[in-house]
Amino acid sequence: MQKYARMTGWGKYVPERILTNLDLEKMVDTSDEWIRTRTGIRERHIAAPGETCCTMSVAAAQQALAVAQIPASEIELIIVATSTPDYLVPSVASMVQDQLRATGAPAFGLRAGCTGWVYALVTACQFLQTGAYRNALVIGTEHLSFGVDWSDRSTCVLFGDGSGAVVLEASDQPTGLLAFDLGSEGSDYDALIFPAFGGANPASHEVIDRRLHYLKMDGRRVFKFATRVLADSVRKVVAASDLTPEDIELVIPHQANDRIIEMARRKLGLPPEKMMVNIDRYGNTSAASIPLALVDAIEEGRIEAGAHLVFVGFGAGLTWASAAFHWEPQEPSAIPVADWPIRDRLVQPVARARTALWSARVNLATRIEPLLLPLYSFAAGYKKRRKKADK
Ligand code: UT7
After folding, report:
1. How far apart are alpha carbons 277 and 145 in whole angstroms?
2. Which of 53, 114, 125, 156 is catalytic?
3. In the annotation, is 53 catalytic?
4. pTM score, whole prediction
5. Does 254 participate in catalysis according to the annotation?
């Protein structure tokens, strides 16, 4: 039977310490006015010593588990999307699994830049939709403050730290992921890069002297890419879900720059209230930004049961991803079938009918096959006898 992936829990964590634009004015040659007008950012949260990708992920995940009312020990899959893990090896997801005491749950990290959380969400849904797992924890976390060059005004004013997490549960009800669009343009891999976090530039004095261990970004190149793919990908995923832009209650985009979001909103012809923007509070938190925005939207009462959402990310790789999602966090029994939209009501009977047809065909074939066997051997023997007689 076709399974679906319901979102039943959500949580967020941001460090207590806030760095405002005015604080940054004292650190580099910048101004509150430049940062606000060019990016929409007013402040960002910065991890304290000892706070890492792992600790922030655990804090957000614990909230998500509490909302879903699932003990960590029952979680069957953990994916952490991040570009700033505690270590290159092991995966931070295994450390999160241990800290949560989600004993034995498979856990892996996923790296797709700022797009990572949407990639992770879509990946987890595949495991649930195939019936492989009954639930999953999907976390997006970023500890960018350790990788930012605090003397480079072109990047240090943009980024912040934080984490967002959701719990997905398998459901028989037609809900959750409706369609997705994932992509990458690796030819621009160097537009947003940590040059020294891998084998290309192993640790050395020279690497440090050249400041290659810090994040580098060609902002204009990424800006052009983002404004192109954001609206295109949303259009694609809405069409693939058999919806129209009017059916979408809220688009939750990656929070990199409010000008990028605004351009996409205009291209899509959406009213401002259908576009989630919270970049002013957190800056760009990369893989954490979409789940953080989702949790804020829920807390602000902007998402009602039955809503159609679109998550859309873009960033390092360069990559993009969008996912159309039906939001129905309640227990299946709590929603009378009569209240489902006609299209949703039809999905299950059609899936059931297709499965029944398929198994009837297989049954018939397995019953008829043995009856036909003597006929096949008689025909084969007849052919042989004819060949002999012709000779
Ligand atoms: O999350 C992953 C994806 N990342 C993104 O999507 C980021 C996409 N890019 C952007 O959001 C924008 O390109 C930035 C916000 C990074 C930069 O905005 P921009 O309008 O593209 O500015 P720019 O790089 O063209 O720079 C304009 C001017 C330059 O001065 P000149 O050459 O015109 O004299 C910069 O040196 O602004 C200057 N500038 C600054 N001035 C004050 C750059 N950074 C700053 C700063 N404060 N912090």
Report:
1. 22
2. 114
3. no
4. 0.85
5. yes
